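Try this one yourself first.
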């Protein structure tokens, strides 16, 4: 074989090898790029989720989002309160045992004593409290069903800034009677847990006290309030 033919044969082999190396290299580069893109997309997703979680937990969206989730839990029927019942023993004397000083939403002074003779549902809540907001639609629905001549609702906001409570009530269209404490809350209203709900008989005795969220909008709970009020007697 002549030198010219040898050179042509060598060149063809070199071209084949170079093309093979180029194809293999391209595939490897493509594989590395795909891995990097996959990792990047995963990191972006993780970062996005963390950012969204931070926005929810560190801003005013926190009670809104968490209360929505907890409202869904209440709808399962697993968070039902005990049914209030008339306490044993004789009724209290004529003097109402709870001269609790309060302010109305528009700042007028009043007391819990004004509701003597009615069953009173006292609910301690705050606008920043997710479980408080979760149970509020149920309280609103129950309030619209009971006879308010016999059953009174007293929702006491523990917000340091009363305007936060006023804004929330207006935004959500609640018509519940909301008040603010005019002094430190005495027993049985002082609590380290909110929401807390206390049911008082017409003479002021405690029929029940429930700490934590609950679904009060049930026929059974409404009937129990009516029995306490004497409408079924």
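Now uncover the answer:
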């Amino acid at each position: 074989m002549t030198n010219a033919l040898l050179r042509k044969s060598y060149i063809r082999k070199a071209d084949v090898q170079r093309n093979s190396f180029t194809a293999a290299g391209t595939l490897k580069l493509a594989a590395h790029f795909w891995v990097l893109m996959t990792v990047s997309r995963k990191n972006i997703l993780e970062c996005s989720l963390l950012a969204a979680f931070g926005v929810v937990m560190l801003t005013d969206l926190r009670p809104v989002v968490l209360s929505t989730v907890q409202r869904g839990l209440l709808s399962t029927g697993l968070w039902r309160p005990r049914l209030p019942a008339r306490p044993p023993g004789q009724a209290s004397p004529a003097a109402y045992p709870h001269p609790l000083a309060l302010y109305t939403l528009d700042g007028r002074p009043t007391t819990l004593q004004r509701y003597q003779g009615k069953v009173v549902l006292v609910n301690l809540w705050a606008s920043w409290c997710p479980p408080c907001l979760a149970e509020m639609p149920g309280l609103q629905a129950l309030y619209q069903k009971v006879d308010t001549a016999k059953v009174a609702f007293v929702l006491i906001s523990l917000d340091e800034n009363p305007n936060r409570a006023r804004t929330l009530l207006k935004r959500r269209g609640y018509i519940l009677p909301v008040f603010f404490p005019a002094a430190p809350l005495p027993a049985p209203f002082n609590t380290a847990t909110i929401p807390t709900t206390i049911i008082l008989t017409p003479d002021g005795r405690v029929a029940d006290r429930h700490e934590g969220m609950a679904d009060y909008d049930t026929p059974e709970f409404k009937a129990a309030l009516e029995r306490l009020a004497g409408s079924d007697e």
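Discussion: Residues 1-59 form one domain. The CA atoms of residues 79 and 214 lie 5 Å apart.
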